[in-house]
């Protein structure tokens, strides 16, 4: 074997390779990673759009379907971004495949970026399809499309980071599903997907303000239909701060190689 | 420039020292064997070189690059075959090999990839996922992956553990071949006989220390015994005089005379002494100890059974 140093080292190729691998990974099991969440969201849309939606109106000027759709899109984005990084990284830790990556020149920033972008792509793909299906049941005014897209990206980024953090701390697959069932799902449901928190009696309304997912959902809905429980400044400000905190946490863990390198 | 320079390398896990300040250098083009019983610190050392285990203290440099400061360079130059089988079931052998060079920042080279596939006999299994491969095939696939970016130093951590004899010999032949073509090899192995046959130099680790390191044949010669067994037709009742230099011992009721040949001593001289004694010699056997004996003497362990 001759050492062909002419094959030049491309310092960004490790990143693109990892990104490609992460995208191929979820595409290879797309029934589970794309189709299943889309079907779930489709069922919610059917229930709230085609059946109950017309009979309910809790926010003046909007049908219930219009109110609930942004939340359902956000739910798809959040769940799938989280699921992608958490299951991919945990599985490589659990099955030992991570060492194949640890011996390569992939740097910690490239590592985080590749995992994050693949997770964002999956979350946003699911969100887009859910939105497309929702157009059958109701159309949204798209009050501020740019802010809507920005909030969707922020949410997927944030939960990609949270997925990385969960995968690093998790001891077993159970821990990961516990995060989903006992943390993310309740926070989504209580974060105003199905109702505006303004209709809640106190102290529940105030409690909801402590729910970080409320700001994501509220800001997103605000941008899509023009109705929000809080101002853009509050919803975006809070979401950006939380995204930064989660990113710094994930970056610190991965930079240190916590539970990855012994 | 040396392929690998290790200086004063330390590592502890939860306060227990696994590697206790070792130094060694591997020259380019060498096949270097790192041996030692289980728990001696070999894998920890290898994993520090590869970057899977964080450096305790000390310095590792590969081809002149520091493996902490210039880790992206050193990792590009090193290929590692891990001891544990690494499983990724999302991709087939073919897909994984096509993807893998990219992690090292080099483009996939179809000719080189095909050469590895051919030489490691992976062609009929290209479209299987790893779960469907036998143990031996998994090993071969891991070797192909470790070589896909054409590393200049290949690290093999017990690559033939659990592999049948025929495949083992095939793999060693392949390792020799890539070594002849310029790749430096660092290996640990369970099989001392193979280390003796394969390695230019050997280092033996024990309890985190290096207890021996030299050219393989020097190590065996320096530390081995050569014995001469003289089977006699007429049993002797006492050791004949004149053979003191060889520490003679009578065995088998005086029917066998056991002599230890002095280091560098010639058999011929001892034979003339025996002739002069006019003993009735029925048969003569010589026995040269091998690396396994040396290993057992150095570590106090049975290397053949307990792992090297």
Description:
The complex is a heterodimer of chains A (262) and B (308). Chain A has 262 residues and is mostly helical. Chain A is built from 10 helices and no strands. Chain A is 72% helix and 0% strand. In chain A, helix 9 crosses helix 10 (232-256). Chain B has helices spanning 42-50, 71-77, 93-103, 110-119, 135-147, 165-180, 192-198, 216-223, 267-276, 291-299, 303-306; strands at residues 4-13, 16-26, 31-35, 57-62, 65-66, 78-81, 153-157, 184-188, 201-206, 209-215, 226-232, 249-251, 256-261, 281-288. The longest helix of chain B has 16 residues, at 165-180. Chain B starts with a strand and ends with a helix. At the A-B interface, helix 1 and helix 4 of A face helix 2 and helix 3 of B.
Amino-to-carboxy terminus distance of chain B: 29 Å
| Helix proportion range of chain A | over 70%
Determine the CATH topology of the largest domain in chain B: Rossmann fold
What class would the helix/strand composition of chain B place it in?
A: alpha/beta
Order of helical and strand elements of chain B: EEEHEEHEHHHEHEHEEHEEEHEHH
Computed over alpha carbons, the radius of gyration of chain A is 20 Å
- Main pleated-sheet profile of chain B: 6 strands, mixed
| C-alpha geometry of chain B | elongated
Uncertain runs of chain A are 1-6
Q: Please give the CATH class of the largest domain in chain B.
A: Alpha Beta
> Helical segment tally of chain B?
11
Structural class estimated from helices and strands of chain A: mainly alpha
**What is the CATH architecture descriptor of the largest domain in chain B?**
3-Layer(aba) Sandwich
Distance between the termini of chain A: 33 Å
Largest interface: A-B, 36 and 41 residues
How many distinct helices of chain A?
10
Rg of chain B, Cα atoms, Å: 24 Å
Main beta sheet strand tally, sense and closure of chain A: none
